[in-house]
Design a protein that fits this description.
Blueprint: H1 2-28, H2 33-64, H3 68-71, H4 75-90, H5 92-106, H6 115-143
């Protein structure tokens, strides 16, 4: 069972990264009606995969791996979880903007987003991707037993 949950955890994490990377690609060019629709789909995939990563990750911590007391005595684990929450909170802004675009798209209107808004969303997505890089670093540190205390 542990292998199955590890596989699902990693699969969801890769889906999360792929969705976020695809959002970044769509945000680089001119935002079209079709692009706005795709951003909504990708953002929903991003949110769903983040939820799966979190739920399965917590199940692994509490039931399928070394136990909560082990993980909560790991500085890299605490940093990893904190970064995950921070990246998730950062995703609120783009999600709200994509939903606003979605309402316009449903009415068949060309998405209206100023250069400043688009630039801000790009920055947030860049920061999210950087956060994921640091999450991966924390995971590697955990796997090597770095930063345990207690």
């Amino acid at each position: 069972m542990s292998i199955t949950f590890a596989f699902l955890h990693h699969l969801a994490a890769f889906m999360l990264v792929a969705a976020l990377a695809a959002e970044m690609v769509l945000l680089k060019g001119e935002l079209t009606l079709e692009g706005a629709r795709r951003l909504q789909v990708l953002d929903a995939l991003y949110g769903a995969s983040a939820g799966v990563v979190l739920v399965i990750g917590l199940l692994r911590v509490f039931y399928f791996e070394k136990g909560a007391s082990y993980y909560f005595h790991s500085a890299p684990f605490i940093a990893k979880l904190s970064l995950f929450v921070a990246v998730g909170l950062l995703s609120i802004y783009p999600t709200l903007m994509f939903r606003r675009l979605g309402r316009a798209a449903k009415q068949g209107q060309q998405p209206a987003m100023t250069g400043v808004s688009l630039r801000n969303i790009r920055r947030v997505v860049h920061v999210q991707l950087a956060g994921i890089v640091f999450i991966l670093l924390c995971a590697a540190m955990m796997a090597r037993g770095v930063g345990f205390f207690g």
